[in-house]
Amino acid sequence: MKKKVVLIHGYNKSSKDMLPLKKNMERLGYECILVDLPLRFKEVDYCTSVFEKKIKGLLRNLNSNEKISIIGHSTGGLIIRYYLSKTKYIDKIGRCVLIATPNKGSQLADIASRFSKVFINILKTLKSLTTEEIKKLGIKEVKNVEIGAIAGNNNNLLLGKLLKEENDGRVRVSSVKYKGLKDFIILPYGHKEIHHKFKTAKLVDSFIRNGKFYGD
Known about the structure:
alpha/beta, Rossmann fold, 9 helices, globular, six-stranded parallel sheet
């Protein structure tokens, strides 16, 4: 039986952005489930509730000894962490992977918030990514689900020039890494490409199977 994984897209994207990762994970023997979330005009907590409803049936229909892993790109990773902190189906969740996720907040979102309150209040997902709002979520770490995180450090995007620290053009490496991760690795990719690379998929596969990011 193939291992099941749910793929969650990032801010201002749809499930289409996860199709390359889906294809790569299927090459590695997985069954992939895509979800679409309103990650533009809605807050992270609201989007997490939508996600919870979308996968409830899937979790209920798993075999007694079967677990499902969840992989999220960017904001999708925050959905995973917030979901894990509140779900009653925690025993059905296997290892999870966050790819280029601003776990400590997005410095670009902070800049946007200072620049225009009107703008940030319309794009509510972006507001949710500010350092202050992520702290307000009060995400609780779960001990019985292992989480790994992958960061990129190829600053190949214009907005990335506003970030002084090592980053992927959107998210600082230091924001992806946080205490409580089972494993962490940095790849030489940018924010918009990192989840499309086969090398990333291979590392995700390694973590799901072994709890470690084993390289080539």
